Amino acid sequence: MNRMSLICRSLLIAVVLTFGIGCSSKPQPLVQQTEVVHAATVATQRANIPDLLEASGTVHAAQTSELASQMMGNIVEIRVHEGDRVQRGQVLAVIDDSQSRAEMNRANAADNAAQQQLVASQADLGLAESTLKRYQSLYDKKSVSPQEFDEVKARQQAAIARRDLARAGQAQSKAVLTQSRTSVEFTRIRAPFDGLVTERRADPGTLAAPGTPVFTIEDLNHYRLEAAVNENDLRYVRMGQMVQVSLDALNDAKLNGKVIQIVPAADSASRSFLVKIELSRDTRLRTGLFGRAAFSRGERSSLLIPRTAVIERGQLQCVYVLDRNKVADLRYVTLGQSSGTDIEVLAGLQDGERLVAKPAETDLSGKRVEAE
After folding, report:
1. Is pTM beyond 0.85 here?
2. Which end of the chain has less Cβ packing within 10 Å, N or C?
3. What CA–CA distance (Å, rounded) separates 95 from 76?
């Protein structure tokens, strides 16, 4: 074989080997690197927290009054509306008083007449007593007959009787006058204490009748929570006990409360007892607010995490948990009671697991978290 043939064969073998090696080699996968972020981390831990019995209820004013007219008549004026603050003695509504005032005028005239009769009877009595005194002196000197003396004495006794009768008439007229003035006063519906008008049930022209409420007002200075406590948990409640009350409408505001009454009869349907808790004064309180009272049952062991670690997703709560490689994974949890800056975890975490302390709104899923 000549030199040219050897060169051609060598080139062919080189091409075949190169092609074969290129076809048999596999592409190497790209290595995806995990993103690294820095954030504060914390480990779950167990601690003893107060064991609280929570009882829900409704806020009521300690003093509520339904105001009604004390006499029948047409309402001619309404001076307040719902939401108005009133002071004790303030006139809230006026009832037609024409008939009552007419009766008061007649009673006043009768009282004046009785007063004049009393003055006249007292004058007659004074004259009769003076006459009797003179006749007594003459009788002692034997200057008048016994019959004349007896007649003068009888006139004096009659004057005393007329005076007493006039006094009785005056007392009666004054009683009638007082009654008529009271009737006129009944034409005014007044606030019995300082408070807030929460309901108005009548308008001008309405016929007011005794026993038919026209207004409802409540005391703004004293409120209480009326909570239902299950019969099995009543042993944790005692008179005078201080409890903490939270109100949803006030952004879970915490108020101090004191148990002032435990209704001794249980509700036959719910098997619960009504507990009345006096609340500390707060201008935001109103009747009808929903509240929860926390009664102490001692302490219990619980798994706690910082509240800052919790992420709200609608009605769900979740946290970023780190695995062995410090990679964050979003996990949903069930939370319980708060304890200061921490919150109890009922389900979803184990003791000792590490999680991101303050994730805020950052998406950390699949990222490796290095402690700050």
Report:
1. no
2. N
3. 5
